[in-house]
Write a structure and sequence with these properties.
The chain has 301 residues and is an alpha/beta fold. It folds into two domains: 102 residues, ATPase, nucleotide binding domain (Nucleotidyltransferase, domain 5, 2-Layer Sandwich), CATH 3.30.420; 143 residues, Nucleotidyltransferase, domain 5 (2-Layer Sandwich). The protein contains seven helices and twelve strands. Strands 1, 7, 8, 9, 10, 11 and 12 form a seven-stranded mixed sheet that branches. A five-stranded mixed sheet has the order 4-3-2-5-6, sandwiched between helices. A hairpin with a 2-residue loop joins strand 8 and strand 9. Helix 1 packs across helix 2. The longest helix has 18 residues. The relative contact order is 0.20.
Length: 301
């Protein structure tokens, strides 16, 4: 697929808007519903029904499952194009865009159950979980991370995270095929700004040109190299400023699904013998004051 060049235009993202923010997810230790293979989730005070990896009978839990091989789950609810995916090393087996970004982790687990059933994969056969860490929707980041942590804890499988902007850059390469001039990943950050970072590909590897941060449109466009393509819905925020200065914005895609590249990242990052380690992942909100605003005013004792 090619790159579409637009001058100060406002591309329309295919995703549906997020439903109003609610409680913002659940804690990793909260109870999770039964999944389609009948394996109950892990809870405090409840005996573990799914054996630890060291206790599993290799004849009962084969690493080659229904022709799919070892599978890893990818979760993204940080962007407007929320998605789930299953991958094995080097290949995305199935990726599904969610019809609307879930406001609660329980809804996301129902969609996961459907995904697993469609591929004849039991949840206990997942070998690891990957999730986008942000930046992105505050509620979406919390929902995705709570769900990923809860699943990894319940199944005793490793958990890894990936910056949403880095996932966007990888998805851009997946869409375009090659990006010799690098790519800028941009997300709408609200308040008239964008979350953005620029990347380049060297020797087949992705390299950052800066850390994730929020930018005013004029400042980001001044830093953007001429001809560098963009990926992500932040292009809509940049559009008016780009039009005002007559700047072309080469666009790869306004909102590609990210769960596939997140699952591929998990497949590459999770090695033999790795286990779930609680407390190792932290959300990447970029603007902490936004998280405080979303929680509401602090109580006075």
């Amino acid at each position: 697929m090619g790159i579409h060049r637009q001058r100060g235009a406002t591309p329309q993202a295919p995703a549906t808007p997020m439903r109003p923010a609610g409680s913002g997810g659940v804690a990793p230790s909260a109870s999770l519903p039964l999944l389609h293979d009948g394996s109950p989730s892990r809870r405090r005070g409840v005996s573990r029904s799914t054996p630890r990896r060291s206790e599993r009978d290799p004849t009962q839990y084969p690493d080659r499952l229904l022709g799919h091989g070892v599978l890893f789950l990818g979760i993204d609810t940080a962007t407007s194009t929320a998605s789930l995916a299953l991958a094995r090393p080097g290949e995305v087996v199935r990726e599904e865009i969610l019809s609307e970004r879930s406001a609660h982790a329980r809804d996301l687990l129902v969609r996961l159950e459907t995904l697993l059933a469609s591929t004849d994969v039991a949840v206990r056969n997942l070998r690891g979980v990957g999730v986008t860490l942000g930046p992105g929707s505050f509620t979406g980041v919390r929902v995705g991370m709570a769900t990923a942590k809860g699943l990894a804890y319940a199944l005793d499988v490793p958990l890894v995270g990936l910056s949403t902007l880095e996932a966007l850059a990888r998805a851009g390469l997946r869409v375009a095929g090659s990006l010799p001039g690098g790519v800028a990943a941009v997300l709408d950050a609200g308040r008239g700004e964008v979350y953005a970072a620029r990347f380049r590909f060297a020797g087949g590897r992705l390299e950052r040109l800066e850390e994730d941060r929020s930018w005013p449109p004029a400042q980001f466009l001044a830093a953007l190299l001429p001809g560098m393509p963009l990926v992500g819905d932040g292009v809509r925020t940049l559009g008016p400023e780009a039009a005002a200065i007559g700047r072309d914005l080469p666009l790869i895609h306004p909102g590609p699904p990210l769960a596939g590249v997140v699952a591929l990242h998990a497949a590459g990052a999770i090695g033999p013998g790795m286990q779930y380690r609680p407390g190792t992942l932290r959300p990447n909100y970029i603007r902490p004051f936004d998280t405080e605003a979303a929680r509401g005013p602090a109580r006075k004792e």
